[in-house]
Design a protein that fits this description.
transmembrane helix, transmembrane
Amino acid sequence: MGRLLKYLFRLIVLAALALVGYALFGDLDAPRAPVSLPLETPAAGQ
């Protein structure tokens, strides 16, 4: 019974840490920047 309580306690602590981590970092958006890459078409060289 004691091992079960220790396991549940560790599980609750890990779940609480995961919840705090998600609350802190879960809503961060990636920085947005326009990306422009020049592409050469194969037919343009002929």
